[in-house]
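User: Structure please.
Assistant: Input sequence and predicted structure:
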Amino acid sequence: MMDHKTALARAHELVKEMTLEEKAGQLRFDAPAIERLGIPEYNWWSEALHGVARAGTATVFPQAIALAAMFDEKAIQDTADIISTEGRAKYNAASSFGDRDIYKGLTFWSPNINIFRDPRWGRGQETFGEDPYLTARTGCAFVRGLQGSGKYLKLAACAKHFAVHSGPEAKRHEFNAVADEKDLRETYLYAFEKLVRDADVESVMGAYNRTNGEPCCGSKRLLKDVLRDEWGFEGHVVSDCWAIKDFHENHHVTANFFESAALAIRNGCDINCGCTYRFLLEAVKQGLISEEEITRACEHAMATRIRLGMMDGDCEYDRISPLENDTDAHAAKALQNAEKAMVLLKNNGVLPLGDGIRTVAVIGPNADSIPALEGNYCGTSSRYVTFLAGIRAECEKRGIRVLYAKGCNLVKDRESGLARADDRLAEAKQAAALADAVILCVGLDPAIEGEQGDAGNEFWSGDKKDLYLPESQRKLLDAVLPLCKKAITVIAAGSALSVPETDAVLQAWYPGQAGGTAAANILFGNVSPSGKLPVTFYRSAADLPDFEDYSMKERTYRYFTGKALYPFGYGLTYTHFTFSDAAFDGENVTVSVKNDGAMDADCVVQCYARAEECRDVPPNPVLCGYERVSVPAGKSARVTLPVNPDAFTAVTDDGKRVPVAGAFSLYVGSGQPDALTEALSGEKSLKISLTR
């Protein structure tokens, strides 16, 4: 692949031919053409969180949080490679007709690698969960898949939002996230550093908020001292959208547009998503910045376009046809991912559904909902299968009658404006009473939880005020559960919810276009569930610190000392795995895994580490390795898990990562080595003791 040095050298020569006005224009997200230099217009803003988004028809994969629940690095990279193929296909098609509009470029503002530190955050669904190591591995795989390994970048990926960004959404334009040096290095910056150093991510996007007083899109500490000087980042930096005008309008660290534009350019923000860089020329006239600083930013921008092959005529990806978008093979991958991502939280023996089931009732506001499949930042699928549609298709094969009742509105107290409150409850009760099994499809959708401005509801700008279902759905469950012979809950949501107990609970996330088929395949036992939680499910928001507190104390499985509802790393299957003969060779853990049951299944083998004598490590064992393996019924597999070398280090209070000597414990199993995981799963982790 063309390296940064070569691309920057070519960019330097190209930018030398530009006027100051032309250079400044190239730093807008909607960069104009420079026809005399053969540079076409270009819009930098494209999205690919879990498929090519906002650009018409594309394969819609499970939401990012669901992809993380697969604990499958290869599947993540393969999925991102498919996304990049579709992105190129759509770019080639649009460009051939002169369409260079927003969302139709090659610079994709994904992945979101912020840490999902608090389940109330609406945008947490966009992340890879609460663990820095899982986020880093998943993010690196996603970047490698997007960017490819050819002569040119296939697409340019973007690590966002840099840094210390995870709500509250309502205050993001003015909020100052305060984090000490230990939390910065151990938690908030960890994945960003890995994506820069290990995956060569081409772009980094700054966050809206301030971090320790500095606005992130103009932060000398973050963008210059850490990103460029310490980590050696060589790509380009882009602002979040209209974040730079927040400098003077909301953060009040500058006085006007000119000073805001100058602060951002001076500290290394190359491209502005927004309008503030329209004032760059005046900022130069006022002596706030130099032309050289604009030149440097323009060279970073043009180097990315050169690495993408946009200035040459021999880019191998220019041959990708529009027929390579929305293919049967891509749809099959979306289904496979959804099956791997769903997490079975509870099962008292009712699943999989089988003999004796003649009538199934599918009830709930998410049963026939397309938004409940999509999640936010999504494309448009040509192949949606809702939960109702997937269950009905499976039931038709088995001769099972399906009854459907919506039961309630997602959030409102009635479906019809002219009706009385709870106008769909009677229909739901009737269906529940007639059925041998009831599948309750509840949860949220992207209109309820998500980004400020996209989500509008009784919740707070897209964030959740608590961990409970909306009141309309709680009323529905209260009404129908006493009538159910067997009750299974299917939860569509991008975050942790505390849902009333039923016989079985399946966390479906926002599972993408094939979500209904995947759910039916799991409910009826065509495949065994195998997803694992990438976040902790708490019992109540009362168990958490204040939402605006960015200290990691009592946050995530690493630091939480209370009793969770469902722990990080947890998920049931339709079989039982036994672990034996665990060993550590200094770099890798090997362990034998036996499938004791009668059904083929995937096992996500997990390794956790704890330094027994060090005060600088988290109080609970920390994930340091994982591997997904398919084990046929009655068979065994020998699994090798590379162990994260950082597991044998600690971050001190001053932010330094240092080696740790002394006694260590490594735990290997299908989840955390805690009593709750063991009680819920019936599987015990093995312990390896060692001294370093």
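The longest strand covers residues 601-611.
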